[in-house]
């Protein structure tokens, strides 16, 4: 016979922000994850600005006797935070914890579905796709790998029926949202929509919104969209490696 394996605790690692909307959105997403998988313990830790900190969450889990953790970066690309900040924090965790770092969320077909959900919630319909140009508006990064991923997502999304899709960035890279909006106008798209490829409100998403002033449609951030919650669980499942422990002869 076998002992039922204990599921690792899922620790969602968010960046954090001085903007209270950020933490509120992260917590709403985590609540949705819990609702999709009752019985799975899900904790949230922040790298900066908000509490609890990632280190504090990991120390508390170790003090409780938890041994297995999946740390999931709440990030859409593998930029600096995923490559440097988060691994550094995890290396400083209590030694009794076995921690596996899950992959970042993007790219994923589920994120494209969430982006389309937000555009339809903002007033578009599937019948509008062929005449609508979309700006895929990211927060931006100085990491070339992250920028290349956003450009590839835009190319892939274009093939699902939109008039055109252009990437844009709120910081670090070009073009800006307003420039991509004008480019789509010049291409002859009947309408232009801006789809923020960000998880939660804050300083850079607000910059995206300002850049969308001349667009016809501005979607909400991805936030606690059902597809995003499902994606968190997909990344969790891929990271954990359950093992059955034999008991007795």
Describe the structure.
This protein folds into two domains: 2-105 and 226-246, Rossmann fold (3-Layer(aba) Sandwich); 109-218, Rossmann fold (3-Layer(aba) Sandwich). It has helices at residues 20-36, 54-64, 80-91, 109-121, 144-158, 177-187, 203-211, 226-239, and strands at residues 2-3, 9-14, 42-46, 68-73, 98-101, 132-138, 164-169, 191-197, 217-218, 245-246. The strands form three sheets. A four-stranded parallel sheet has the order 3-2-4-5, with helices on both faces. By secondary structure, the protein is of the alpha/beta class. It contains eight helices and ten strands. Helix 1 (20-36) packs across helix 8 (226-239).
What's the arrangement of secondary structure elements?
Elements: E1 2-3, E2 9-14, H1 20-36, E3 42-46, H2 54-64, E4 68-73, H3 80-91, E5 98-101, H4 109-121, E6 132-138, H5 144-158, E7 164-169, H6 177-187, E8 191-197, H7 203-211, E9 217-218, H8 226-239, E10 245-246
Parallel strand pairs: 2-3, 2-4, 4-5, 6-7, 6-8, 8-9
Antiparallel strand pairs: 1-10
Strand order of the largest sheet: 3-2-4-5
Strand count, sense and barrel status of the largest sheet are: 4 strands, parallel
> How many beta-strand runs?
10
Which fold name fills CATH's third level, the topology of the largest domain? Rossmann fold
Question: What does the overall shape look like?
Answer: elongated
What class do helices, strands and sheet pairing give?
A: alpha/beta
- Determine the number of helices (DSSP H or I, runs of at least 4 residues): 8
**Uncertain residue ranges:** 243-249
Rg from alpha-carbon coordinates? 20 Å
Which sequence of SSEs, written as H and E, runs from N to C? EEHEHEHEHEHEHEHEHE
Mind telling me which CATH architecture of the largest domain this is? 3-Layer(aba) Sandwich
Quickly name the level 1 CATH class of the largest domain: Alpha Beta
Instruction: Let me know the average pLDDT.
Output: 94
């Amino acid at each position: 016979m076998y002992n039922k394996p204990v599921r690792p605790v899922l620790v969602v690692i968010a960046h954090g922000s001085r903007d209270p909307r950020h933490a509120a959105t992260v917590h709403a997403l985590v609540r949705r994850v819990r609702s999709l998988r009752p019985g799975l313990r899900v904790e949230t830790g922040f790298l900066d600005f908000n509490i609890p900190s990632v280190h504090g969450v990991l120390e508390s889990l170790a003090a409780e006797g938890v041994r297995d953790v999946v740390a999931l970066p709440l990030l859409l690309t593998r930029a600096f935070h995923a490559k440097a900040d988060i691994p550094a924090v995890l290396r400083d965790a209590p030694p009794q914890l076995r921690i596996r770092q899950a992959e970042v969320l993007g790219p994923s077909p589920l994120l494209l579905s969430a982006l389309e959900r937000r555009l339809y919630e903002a007033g578009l319909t599937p019948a509008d796709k062929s005449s609508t140009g979309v700006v895929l508006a990211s927060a931006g990064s100085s990491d070339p790998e992250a920028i290349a991923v956003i450009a590839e997502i835009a190319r892939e999304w274009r093939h699902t029926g939109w008039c055109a899709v252009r990437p844009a960035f709120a910081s670090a890279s070009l073009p800006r949202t307003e420039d991509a909006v004008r480019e789509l106008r010049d291409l002859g798209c009947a309408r232009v929509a801006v789809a923020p490829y960000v998880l939660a409100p804050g300083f850079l998403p607000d910059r995206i919104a300002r850049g969308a002033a001349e667009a016809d449609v501005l979607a909400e951030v991805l936030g606690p969209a059902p597809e995003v919650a499902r994606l968190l669980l997909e990344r969790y499942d891929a990271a954990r490696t359950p093992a059955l422990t034999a008991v007795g002869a």
